[in-house]
Amino acid sequence: MTFAGFSHGIALLVRKEASMIAAANFVGLPLMFISAILIPPRQMPHWIEVLSRFNPVNWGVHAARNAIVAGGHWGASSMYLGLLVAATACTSLFATWCFRAYQRSI
C-alpha cells in the first residue's frame, strides 16, 4: 500500500503512463536491492545494512519472515508493521495532495 500511494501520486503529477512506470521503477528497484530480499543482513556491506534499516521494503520482508519463519513473533513484527502503516499514511497524504492539485488543474 505504501508504493500504491506513491505510484498514484506520481501518476497524477506526470499524467503519462510511461513516465509513471519509469518513476516507480526508479524508486522501487533500488529499494528492493537495498533490502534483505536477496541478501541476508549479515552478509551485506555495512553501508547497505545501514540504509536497509530505513527501507520500507525491508520492513515488509522482516515482518513477513517474523510471521512465517519465526512462528509469528508479534513483538518484532508489530514494530515493522507499525513502520509500514506510518509510511502508508505518508504516501496516502502525498497521493491526496496530488489529487487535489490535479483537481485544481482541470
* Residue fraction in strands: under 5%
Q: Helix- and strand-based class?
A: mainly alpha
The backbone outline, from C-alpha atoms, is elongated
Number of domains: 1
What's the rounded overall pLDDT mean? 90
Which sequence of SSEs, written as H and E, runs from N to C? HHHHH
**Biggest β-sheet description:** none
Number of E-type strands? 0
Low-confidence stretches: none
Q: How far do the termini sit from each other?
A: 27 Å
Calculate Rg over CA atoms: 16 Å
How would you explain this protein's 3D organization?
- The protein is mainly α and 106 residues long.
- The chain has helices at 2-14, 17-33, 46-52, 56-68, 74-105.
- The two termini are 27 Å apart.
- The model has no long low-confidence stretch (mean pLDDT 90).
What is the structure about, briefly put?
The chain has helices at 2-14, 17-33, 46-52, 56-68, 74-105. With 106 residues, the protein is mainly alpha-helical.
Helix-strand blueprint:
Layout: H1 2-14, H2 17-33, H3 46-52, H4 56-68, H5 74-105
Which tags fit this structure?
single chain; 106 residues; mainly alpha; 77% helix
